[in-house]
Design brief:
The complex is a heterotetramer, with 2 copies of chain A (323 residues) and 2 copies of chain B (327 residues).
Chain A (H helix, E strand, L loop, with lengths): L1 E4 H15 L3 E5 L15 H9 E3 L4 H13 L3 E8 L7 H8 L2 H4 L9 E6 L14 H5 L5 E3 L4 H13 L4 E6 L6 E4 L12 E4 L4 E5 L3 H14 L4 E5 L2 E3 L3 H11 L2 E8 L4 H12 L9 E5 L8 H7 L3 H11 L1
Parallel strand pairs in A: 2-3, 2-4, 4-5, 5-7, 6-7, 10-11, 10-13, 13-14
Antiparallel strand pairs in A: 1-8, 6-12, 9-11
Helix pairs in contact in A: 1-7, 3-4, 8-12
Chain B lengths: L5 H26 L13 H10 L5 E5 L3 H7 L3 H8 L23 E5 L5 H15 L5 E6 L6 H12 L4 E7 L30 E4 L3 H16 L5 E6 L17 H9 L2 H11 L4 H23 L24
Parallel strand pairs in B: 1-2, 1-3, 3-4, 4-6, 5-6
Helix pairs in contact in B: 1-2, 1-3, 1-9, 1-10, 2-3, 2-7, 4-10, 5-6
Classes of the chains: A alpha/beta (323), B alpha/beta (327).
The complex binds thiamine diphosphate (TPP) (2 copies) and magnesium ion (2 copies).
One thiamine diphosphate (TPP) sits at the interface of chains D and A.
């Protein structure tokens, strides 16, 4: 057991899998010699050599295309997109090629690959380097979508993603890189599609993801002071989605609040709300409330960005409105 | 190269099979048996035939929606290809892909891609895996002249060149995008060959209707790639006999141009050359008869085949065989 | 008044606006000399000349980038993406540049441009040429999203899109190109953000878009035979979204079924369901049901594609389940 | 070109203003006043200064996140630029853009773009509008060496060339992407110049640290574009004195390389050249004092400026001033 940052957990997770399986390779911009712009992949080049850990040109279509081709021909590649916003420059390869190929070939082609990417706001980088894009990936059939909130989960879910026989988009949250946690030694491997109840409660279910999990937990803490018992669920992966844990919780608490960092329209919170409104409507004791970033690009100025991204205050308000 | 050989006859057979097959695809499209769309490579058969002849069976091909020929000649069963286009249960992708997505992984036909340019980086990736795994495979990636203007082309060529990947990029320059002449949307004469130097590569042009010439160049660049000397970009000049897709009559092309190219038909000229080189007409006609019979047989199989089982709608999104996104 | 196809309505709409405003120009692949692969833009080159109607290389990033730059410098350009699936190859320009620029520049830059694109399935083209991607655009703040269901609306909404000072993604449905309608002569201009009640009813609200509108209408017809009175709403635009019409209807009928052609997760139906579950929960007399394509890439074979895309049968079933 | 002139002094003034400004930006970043990130063009000032000197005031510039210099030298107010980086209310974009998105449309500074390559097609589009509207404007688009490997570069160059657009693409080759040497990810020596021929363009290389040379070439290519003779692709070789961004110490660069380039500082060499050409030290020092005072003034303004009004969070998504997506 040793304290590990979320940042260092990335390299540990990759190393764990590269050590185990020689077909795991890793590429991206500035990831090898420089150890990544977020220093998440330091030491990997030294440990695994330039054949398996490699710097690429600034060519995200080539990077993701290479992942796909390599996965078709016997490797289990991991690629890094420096910022999740850059999914947009290779969205065809990700959404039209990687996601659809198994189905379109009638199951002939397997694509065991992982696209890791730094996601989310709070770093004052402005609208093109701060987006929370998990819901883009969730909307595309054929992609699995993972977004850990703790260092331990980074290792366990990354291992699960690498071992998964299907393509996984793995969102690492920039705001969490510096967070720390005691993480067990030795191999850690999770299963995808298992949400965690990170705080039990009985009055309301709060569903959150990645950097919104600590926000939800803070809100739950404050709510308990006001006598409201909030259950906080860390979804951990959006595809597969653990609707069982979610529905069990909501039918018990009768209330649901989702906390999404992404802009309002068509986020994962809407999907969850629609599932509950179809499958558990009669169990609801109050409206379903979605706390999201407003439907705006993310501003750069500190005060504005903080105002835009859901805060514990806004979560508390939302819960109090329906309890 | 001028004396008849088994492999030259085999290339003739390939071209004839491709020719007859696609003529039938066209007829069946007009009849409504083949559905959706088709993009025929009629007139371009020599490129696929010449390259396939130069490949090892474990080499990999990547092609476009206009990839019937390439997939067939790599060895995919004709009935399964036709069945895919007709949306039948015996389709090579179970009816899920359609005419633009023919794939037969068992033959190294690693897919037909319908978004222009996308498969170039994918082919580079497969070549990268071959290199790392030391398999000695070469990836061959076919695409059109119009494709040289899209971003993915540029990224793939650069990556392949700088990583010295065993991949051969083959531009089939048939002078047109869909309906627009390539010359009106590009500032160089040779869409691929004039761009090779941007990636530190040699400019390579070949007569895409001369299957011997194609095979010669193909052998050279494929073996170069196999020896670890990196990628090549080949431009093969050719022409499509039909329109871009479906029932397109191709009216945007000057009649003299069409006539000239129809006269310079790769199948016709190769037939004449083989004959001149001493191949007996019987041998040639036997090849043609066999191909015709194969096409007829495949057609019958497809006509009698049922549509896909409705249950397969929800299979094969994931490796577990299903499509569940929730527990 | 003359009968007009949906296909011909496109050219009429473009011509109406080009005639009126010399700053309107139009570009795309095979759109000029050939009149478009769907023959939606025939005659425009002849009428407006090669400066204003122009064929491009196969370069969707260059096309959409050119629209943006031109809009920044005094034109009101219209661009065609041949299939909406190709949004993926220029998604950065659309979602990261065009959508965000007004906000990120503090309002300095106006982008009055229209991206027209052929959307949707039912044509046996397979998974990369059949997607319904309105929800991708809806999820991006800064884009307006329009999807007409009739020839008349094509003209009126296209005119509104061209005159709109903000960027609009205009989805034309391939399955509707051959449909016909009597359309008034003379100029037609609509406003964006107004839904239409295309069939009044009292028992359930069915919200639909584009090719799903006729499907919903067919379902409503059949339901009326079973004594169920369904109100069908054609949303017409997703951004701006006419929540007033929608909420008024749902509070009156007490039931909501959405009919989406896109795959299940994070579609516009989820957004609408979440709005209703937050703002009109106590008015509901039954669960909200979303009828969608399953969360799969679209298959090519005719029987499979028909099974995948929502049918009137499936809409009828959904309604009967909650009435 | 060797005799001192008003415009040469003006270029020196521009370089000094840019230099002092960015040094201050760095200090304020370390102090936590400038937030998020910064990408300094320290050492690259001669490219912006030389090009701006050759432009008409209604010409348009497009630049990257490393665009402080270009935006400043087009005429954007220093305090508004610094205020934007600090996220203050007086920021040129009201705090919404941040350091990577400096824009001043009133000065023809049409934006700083943070996604590599995106602004090349956008610049082409602005040039297209200039051509159609007959305004005589030229668009000048600045970007880095690493950008020559991304798809948008290729598409923009091709479109600009085939449409003969009045746009000049300027590659500032500073030898590195972020931390990776460009030479390790590209198979040609000159990332831009060696690719010009792929678009039918002339190969143009210039010493990007020699502002006179830059201006001479800039004048030539801009006027060529203005005459309707189409686009150019210029490669200006230069070097950044600091790391890629923020507090990056740039340790991935060999010390001798850094030292050599620091010695070949564009500001220093131009100062020496002007002096040698007879410009009095008083004149030069006056320029430097003025620039320092301007930077100090802007700093004071920004230190005293409030954050943006919270109400502006929801403004300017749409032309109506607001952000409503529903009625
Ligand atoms: C990204 C993208 N843009 C546009 C299309 C539509 N499209 C399909 S084929 C084609 C023409 C391609 O021309 P070329 O590369 O010369 O190949 P050819 O069809 O001549 O074999 C176009 C524009 C597409 N499929 N993908
Ligand atoms: C599409 C995309 N990929 C990656 C990045 C991250 N990134 C920002 S700057 C940069 C290096 C750019 O290098 P170059 O073009 O040489 O410009 P320079 O920074 O040297 O001025 C990278 C990789 C990005 N912003 N956009
Ligand atoms: Mg072609
Ligand atoms: Mg650089």
């Amino acid at each position: 057991m040793a304290e590990l940052t979320y940042r260092a957990a990335v390299a540990r997770g990759i190393a764990q899998e590269m050590e185990r399986d020689p077909s795991v390779v890793f590429i991206g911009e500035d990831v090898a010699a420089a150890g990544g712009v977020f220093k998440t992949t330091e030491g990997l080049l030294e440990r695994f050599g330039p054949d398996r850990v490699r710097d690429t040109p600034i060519s995200e279509q080539a990077i993701t295309g290479a992942l796909m081709g390599a996965a078709m021909n016997g490797l289990r590649p991991i690629g890094e997109l420096m910022f999740s916003d850059f999914l947009a420059v290779c969205w065809d390869i990700v959404a039209n090629q990687i996601a659809k190929t198994r189905y379109m070939t009638g199951g002939q082609v397997a694509l065991p690959l992982v696209i890791r990417t730094a996601n989310g706001g709070g770093t004052r980088f402005g609208g093109q380097h701060s987006q929370s894009l998990e819901s883009w990936a969730m909307a595309v059939p054929g992609l699995k979508v993972v977004a850990p909130s703790t260092p331990r989960d980074v290792v366990g879910l990354l291992a699960a993603a690498v071992r998964d026989p299907d393509p996984v988009v793995f969102f690492e949250h920039k705001k969490l890189f510096a967070t720390k946690q005691d993480v067990p030694d030795g191999e850690i491997v999770d299963r995808l599609g298992i949400a965690t109840v990170v705080a039990p409660g009985s009055d309301v279910t709060i569903a959150a993801l990645a950097a919104m999990v600590p926000v939800a937990l803070e809100a739950a803490g404050r709510l308990s002071e006001s006598g409201v018992s909030a259950e906080v669920i860390d979804l951990r992966s959006l595809v597969p989605l653990d609707t069982r844990t979610l529905l069990e919780s909501v039918t018990r608490t009768g209330r649901l609040v989702t906390v999404e960092e992404n802009p309002r329209l068509c986020g994962w919170g809407a999907e969850i709300a629609s599932i509950v409104a179809e499958e558990a409507l009669w169990d609801l004791d109050g409206p379903i409330v979605r706390v999201t970033t407003p439907h705006i690009p993310l501003p750069a100025a500190a005060e504005m960005e903080d105002l835009a991204i859901p805060s514990a205050d806004r979560v508390v308000d939302a819960v109090l409105r329906i309890t | 190269m001028s004396s008849p050989s088994a492999s030259r006859l085999s290339m003739y057979r390939d071209m004839v099979r491709a020719r007859y097959f696609e003529q039938r695809v066209y007829d069946l499209f007009m009849e409504g048996i083949v559905k959706g769309t088709t993009h025929l490579g009629l007139g371009q058969e020599a490129v696929a035939a010449g390259f396939v002849a130069a490949m090892r069976s474990d080499d990999l091909t990547f092609c476009t929606y206009r990839g019937h020929n390439h997939t067939l000649l790599r060895g995919a069963p004709m009935a399964a290809l036709l069945g895919e286009m007709a949306g039948r249960d015996l389709g090579i992708c179970g009816g899920k892909g359609g005419s633009m997505h023919l794939t037969d992984v068992t033959k190294g036909a690693m897919g037909s891609y319908a978004i222009v340019g996308a498969h170039l980086p994918i082919a580079a990736g497969a070549a990268w895996a071959a290199l790392l795994r030391g398999t000695g495979q070469v990836a061959v990636c076919f695409f059109g002249d119009g494709t040289t203007n899209i971003g993915a082309f540029h990224e793939a060529l650069n990556l392949a060149a700088v990583w010295k990947l065993p991949v051969v990029f083959v531009c089939e320059n048939n002078l047109y995008m869909e309906y627009t002449p390539i010359s009106t949307v590009i500032p160089v004469e040779h869409p691929a060959a004039d761009r090779a130097s941007a990636y530190g590569l040699e400019s390579l042009l070949v007569d895409g209707n001369d299957v011997d010439a194609v095979r010669t160049l193909a052998t050279e660049v494929i073996e170069r790639a196999r020896r670890g000397e990196g990628p090549s970009l080949v431009e093969a000049k050719t022409y499509r006999h039909k329109g871009h897709s479906r029932a397109d009559p191709g009216k945007y092309r000057p009649q003299e141009e069409v006539d000239a190219w129809l006269a310079y038909d790769p199948v016709k000229i190769y037939r004449a050359r083989l004959t001149a080189d001493g191949v007996g007409i019987d041998t040639i006609e036997a090849i043609e008869r066999e191909a015709a019979a194969e096409v007829d047989g495949a057609t019958e199989q497809v006509r009698n085949a049922p549509p896909p089982d409705p249950g397969t709608l929800l299979t094969d999104v994931w490796a577990d065989g299903g499509s569940a996104w929730r527990n």
